[in-house]
Design brief:
With 257 residues, the chain is of the alpha/beta class. It is built from 7 helices and 10 strands. Helix 5 links the parallel strand 7 and strand 8. The protein starts with a strand and ends with a helix. The protein binds adenosine-5'-diphosphate and magnesium ion.
Length: 257
């Protein structure tokens, strides 16, 4: 699904964050990306989203070189990106309205309104994310968890095949975060969705990623990839294998900090 071949990326006048970096993600896999602050986790998501471009190397999604954002990639950021002047329902509808305006290929094909069957899909996603009761409220009137549910509904309504999430639960309290981690895991398992989630906590990486990519500071060359049998299972801190994997990641992070 995702193929990075020897990509090099640096921000203008800065040292490379990625150097001849190769990495593959197969369709349907769930990946967690972990690494110290500033190592390039968000940058990697922007590259995958087609919002930044490598200076060298190729980045392909489904075999096609990525030159611009693709409509079937969903991106969820830490600050949710909700319009404060729109209700929950209007925010969930937003992606559809934009897609209708620009067309499924991202080109300009103006058309007004959202047809009834799509309005039904809006209702279904409001239900599925447990936010139907607050559909007419504004982002300023709801909790952080409810805002994130709104952002997730808006993104999944567009039926992405690739979902990119940048520390999506970082600012939520623990019970809310665990609920949403579980929900995202369930929703991803229900459909042919490939997910890449950036996180800075080991437990979240172990919950969300069946594979874990560990990034480091000072330029990433060879990716460190760990297999994780514990994804979607909640924290199993007592299990020796879980502890061993946690220790392995902690050690890798320490080396890379
Ligand atoms: P992370 O998400 O792992 O914390 P980022 O990908 O946000 O890291 O950033 C990686 C590095 O690139 C950081 O040192 C950051 O300061 C720098 N950086 C991020 N965006 C820009 C930019 N637009 N221009 C220059 N440097 C940037
Ligand atoms: Mg970041």
């Amino acid at each position: 699904m995702i193929q990075l071949e020897r990509i090099t990326f640096h921000y203008e006048k800065h040292l490379p964050l990625f150097e001849e970096f190769s990495w593959q993600v197969a369709r349907g896999q769930s990946w967690a990306v972990i690494g110290p602050s500033g190592c390039g986790k968000s940058t990697l998501l922007y590259l995958l989203a087609g919002l930044q471009h490598p200076q060298q190397g190729t980045l392909r999604i489904n075999g096609e070189a990525l030159n611009a954002p693709r409509p079937s990639t969903g991106l969820i950021l830490q600050d949710y990106g909700l319009l404060p002047w729109s209700t929950v329902r209007q925010n969930v509808r937003l992606g559809l309205a934009l897609r209708k305006f620009y067309g499924p290929d991202g080109k300009h094909t103006p058309a007004a309104g959202v047809p009834p069957q799509q309005e039904k899909a809006v209702d279904q996603w409001l239900e599925r994310l447990g936010i139907a009761a607050i559909a007419e409220k504004f982002p300023g009137q709801i909790s952080g968890g409810q805002r994130q549910r709104t952002a997730i509904a808006r993104t999944l309504l567009l039926e992405p095949d690739l979902l990119l999430m940048d520390e999506p639960f970082a600012s939520l309290d623990t019970p809310t975060r665990e609920d949403l981690q579980q929900l995202v895991h369930t929703l991803a398992a229900e459909r042919p969705l490939t997910t890449v989630s950036v996180t800075h906590t080991i437990d979240e990486a172990l919950f969300l990623g069946e594979k874990i990519l560990v990034l480091k500071n000072g330029g990433n060359r060879a990716p460190l990839v760990l297999e994780n049998p514990f994804s979607g299972q909640g924290t199993q801190q007592s299990e020796p294998a879980y502890q061993a994997l946690t220790a392995r990641i902690r050690e890798a992070l320490r080396e890379s900090a």
